[in-house]
Write a structure and sequence with these properties.
The chain has about 400 residues and is mostly beta strands.
Length: about 400
Amino acid sequence: MARKRRGGRSAQTPAPAEAAPVDALVLILRRLPPADLLRAALACRRWRRAASLALPRAPPLLGYFFHPQDTPPPPPMEVDKRVLYPAAFAPLDDASASPRLSLAFAPDAARGFAIQDVHLGLVLLLPSKLPEMLLPRILVLDPASRRRALLPPPPRDAVPNDRWRRTRHVIGVAVLSRAHPSRLCFEAVCLAVDGDRPRAWVASVRDGDCTWRALPRSKEVKVDFDPVWFEKRCVHAGGKLYWHICNSGRMLVLDPRTLEISFLLAPAELGDHFCKYRIGETPEDGRLCIASMEEQELQLWVRGDAKWSDNGWLLERKMRMRKVLDRVPGLPRDVKSRIISTYLSDIDAGRTGKVFIKTLGYGRYSFHLETWKLERLVTEDGKEHGHPIFAYYLAWPPAFLSPLEEACY
């Protein structure tokens, strides 16, 4: 006869969770938020195996990194005296399922470094005050594992007979790939213009050890304008990297697999009229898309090859935004002042179906394209979310659940 434990349960009777078939356990674990799923995987080997089968294919979105900023006065404004505040993290609405990450574990992040890219669980920061001709050192942080590395600039002899050293213009830096989800094993790129041709500098990092290589200048792409018009921050979309160019109908594109550089034309309806547009991905299927908001009308374009396409783009949706903008407190009602005071600042890289709207003097907002919900983005101390707003995804899959636990290169 089986001995009884306190509470009446037999010592040989398994707990309900232990008795559940693996298939049933997988179905249960799939209902958990990513953070709770990872905690459950640490319970025992059986749960770890079930959790590895229950992992979602897409990496989970944990929240957003940004530099807070003070709301400027409405137009006409004085000269911008923006203060660089330390980067902040805003978790998703369900705070219990999203950890409150921070860059405070790296004191350098609060002393003159600004975020330039967030991708594959890594955050890249550059010194905020640096001559644009100098190749920078790069601060790399992994907020989830609290690892960090400070990459040195490329060596001076990386390009033999470097005659562009005094005229070089650095555009920006970005993450190319990551070989291990919990180690600092990754590749990053620093994009610069040498003369009138762009060049990619690639850093290969293995557990903090960094080696640089300089690629030849692009032969296909000619920068026939002042490179100061390049935006420093890139956009990861459709498997490629895109740099917007102010007042231009084209974008600079870098393919991370081949490291080839090219231009991509925006719709002529936008580019020929100097409309401000942003590139990104559609939330439902990840198609390459462009969004623009001009004269209180929001347009969404998607990539397509139909005969009536505009430079390979198809107009998918138009939305009148007048009544939406009426909900912004204090925003002028006359059309001219409203057009001057509002613009589309980004497509949410978290693929939530939202875009970000910037107003001059009236705050920053997120707008959901399906529900039409307009929400002000403000911190607890009253500052607004600065531009850009970087979506942070957890490096995926976690190393202890990945079949390639020790692979690095």
